[in-house]
């Protein structure tokens, strides 16, 4: 399994780009998973629902399951996301993280406006529809899912120097 992180300022287009990239990678034969970073104030389980009540009552893990979907809720006590990526997504070819600027994984910045993150944190590439000044060694990519998939294949999936989680 390989991991790549998409970072960028709020409303830079990370989610849209990832949603366009996933079907491109799948069409190329890759099994893809994602992990979305949210603020601590976001409660992924809904107050008052049975799963929430089970968790508050003390269940270590609560699996929500239907005929077509499932979700696992747990309080992880601040442990690193890498532990859970490996445990729950380790059988996939690539896992795309959204957010996680401080993670040790290779990063691609989605840049729209404001102060770029490239240069402040290490990134492999910057995706932008406008000209942007990027540090030496950082590739500037168009917001084209095919071009981004080409880059990910060359730099992440086929690169022996890029490590997995």
What does this structure look like?
The protein is an alpha/beta fold and 165 residues long. The protein has a single domain (2-39, 80-157), classed as Rossmann fold (3-Layer(aba) Sandwich). Helices cover 27% and strands 22% of the residues. A hairpin with a 4-residue loop joins β3 (61-65) and β4 (70-74). The radius of gyration is 17 Å and the shape is globular.
Record keyword descriptors for this entry.
globular, Rossmann fold, 6-stranded parallel β-sheet, alpha/beta, single chain, 165 residues, 27% helix, two-stranded antiparallel sheet, 4 helices
The spatial strand order of the largest sheet comes to 2-5-1-6-7-8
CATH class: Alpha Beta
Q: Helical amount among residues, as a percent range? A: 25-40%
Q: Please state the oligomeric state of the protein chains shown.
A: single chain
Number of domains: 1
How far apart are the termini? Answer: 7 Å
Judged by helices, strands and strand pairing, the structural class is alpha/beta
Overall 3D form: globular
Secondary structure: number of strands: 8
**Structure annotation, total helices:** 4
Instruction: Write down the CATH topology.
Output: Rossmann fold
